[in-house]
Amino acid sequence: xxxxxxxxxxxxxxxxxxxxxxxxxxxxxxxxxxxxxxxxxxxxxxxxxxxxxxxxxxxxxxxxxxxxxxxxxxxxxxxxxxxxxxxxxxxxxxxxxxxxxxxxxxxxxxxxxxxxxxxxxxxxxxxxxxxxxxxxxxxxxxxxxxxxxxxxxxxxxxxxxxxxxxxxxxxxxxxxxxxxxxxxxxxxxxxxxxxxxxxxxxxxxxxxxxxxxxxxxxxxxxxxxxxxxxxxxxxxxxxxxxxxxxxxxxxxxxxxxxxxxxxxxxxxxxxxxxxxxxxxxxxxxxxxxxxxxxxxxxxxxxxxxxxxxxxxxxxxxxxxxxxxxxxxxxxxxxxxxxxxxxxxxxxxxxxxxxxxxxxxxxxxxxxxxxxxxxxxxxxxxxxxxxxxxxxxxxxxxxxxxxxxxxxxxxxxxxxxxxxxxxxxxxxxxxxxxxxx
Length: 436
Description:
By secondary structure, this protein is mainly α. Helix content is 47%, strand content 10%. The chain folds into three domains: 1-220 and 274-355, no CATH class; 222-264, Arylsulfatase, C-terminal domain (2-Layer Sandwich), CATH 3.30.1120; 358-435, no CATH class. The strands form four sheets. It has a three-stranded antiparallel β-sheet with strand order 2-1-11. The chain has a three-stranded antiparallel β-sheet with strand order 4-3-8, covered by helices on one side. Helix 3 packs parallel to helix 9 and helix 7 (195-219) packs antiparallel against helix 9.
């Protein structure tokens, strides 16, 4: 065990064992049983006894993430909703409104800070995350130089200890020690994480998928049946070879008494035994992590169902963001302030802007530009399109009355404004005048 004067241990010394292939449900059940035994006696555990070793459980979790494409896609969808220019460092004014600090916000944007956000989210998925943060600043970017997520296999979250060798108490580091408390942040959900519910489903899905592949190989291709009058084994083998090569050559020459028949299987929908199980697992995983299967790519039968799933998805994302805000303001930001990296008095906040599709955004801006004056910078920021003056504010443009003044929606609309808006005159009198 090596410790420097800054209270840092060398993470490169950690020794872990990775076993993420050929995992079975039996292994998952054994880890649950072991964890239950630990929870039963943890109040009696003394220092020196390793009971909260979740290394094998992490093997199961990572095997599912690495080998299941659907789960990986769901996680990427989740990450896409919590990173980007959605968050800021702000100070709350007397009216309760958060005012963004632009300079300080720039310090929490970039690849290293995204590691912190991902680590917080992964604490809900894996059950815990240990982050290593030091005030070293990159000279090129002016931001944190390096943020490290300590290998979970070497962390005993409930015993609050990092061990050098997996499953061995000593040598190790006590995270509650004062020399480590400022730079090492243990984010512990107190549970086994959401992956504890998805892991058995995905392990069962892998077994089902393997059976489905075998089923397809056995029954997916038709059998070519050949019949010959010859009783010679040589003639029969020759015909069999000709039939097997005919699939590539597309040509086969037979004798006068030979017959070739293709045996196709009747469709019995037997494959749906496998596909329905796979679809069920995918839906369960999506609903657990995102709150909605349609947000992970599933199609819905009607528009109302899709909108309902979108609302559930946005509520679930809000829960993740609230969790991130709480951890940031309670654990991360105070430490960064103490290090001198951030100014005091600021809070980490996600913006309250609506998450909308491009179609919804266009409709909203079309409505707003007809009622209010919008800055060209706002249009360019949202859509990347450089625009000039707003036409409906100019004399004679759409939205102006007959005197060239802007029509604010109150009072009677002039005939000219009505015609420019709807492309026709209103009322019988206007119609008759137009016919003349």
